[in-house]
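Hi R.,

As promised, here are both runs. First protein below:
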Amino acid sequence: MFSDEEKKSSTEIEGIKEVTNWDDISRFRENVFEGRWENVIPEYIDYSDYHKIIINESRGTALHVAVNDGKVELVNILVEAILSHEGRAVLRADSALRSTNERGDTPLHLAASRGFIGMCKCIIGEYGERKDLIRVRNDNGETPIFKAVLTGQTKVFVYLHHVSKDLKVSLRNYDGDNILHYSIWREFLGKQAFNSIFISI
């Protein structure tokens, strides 16, 4: 099906440093795709190689899939596995938490856009130790805060804005639109959230 060179280049593109074998990767992808998390979790906990494997371009990594499917407990397990391998002190530049799907969305972008505040807290950390993820922009220049506004997730917006108030977070996308444009257009923010946006711009 794949030549040795194709197998090698495919795994390198996905950011895997030590690949046991192509069949293991294919099986891992299939297990994630089919929702057989009982098979995924042990491998994910034991081998950091699996943290950045792209399941498919549109869905992203296993963590993207878990977030998108709304599996809170699973997200907690996967994030804990990533942190146990990468360390907790400083968010690495190559962290699996920064992995993106085809739109450039990190798992935090997805959690914010779906309104999963518990997942946002898990990814960012109880004390905001990974809050720098709030500054990451996707391919359209949207931060997780921008995505929360774009999809009408008021509670997530307020939480992310509060956690990141000491960071310089872009409130504009690459087209030059800011979150105030979208919040007015969608008419979803209450006074408190609206005031927070207005003061920041």
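And here is the second one, sequence first, then its structure tokens:
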Amino acid sequence: MKFRTAGIGALTLATTVAAVTAAAALEQHPLTRSDSSSHSSFHAPSALVLTVNNGASASASAPQRAVTLTCGSYTPGGTHPQPAAACDALQQADGRLSGLRDSGRSCTLDLRPVTVTLQGAWQGRRVNEERSFPNDCVKGAFGPLTEF
């Protein structure tokens, strides 16, 4: 009987430790509700790094600028100059650079390509993308996410 009691005590202790650990993790990184027109679900906060490079691909040169962006928490943040607007733009683009839409800004036809990269986690999904633009003006025409 002592063995059975010890086993139940160990199981209870393990369950309690797991519950306390999970509660502590949620306190440090609370789940936030993310509503979209198609469905509702819970996601951990998103943490991203954006870079801009001169050239037609990210591998063509070293990053010229880099910023961080956190979304999905109570207050968007990071080193991005417009974190709230950037998070809204990324939400509308379903977390993808390819989902960004051109605002219709008029730009010159200068060919000085720049590439933006997006790496990190977006609503529980790993993201690693790059998108090239003919020049800085066109890059900026795709909204606040790419304006840094």
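A quick note on the second one: The CA atoms of residues 55 and 113 lie 5 Å apart. Let me know what you think.

Best,
J.
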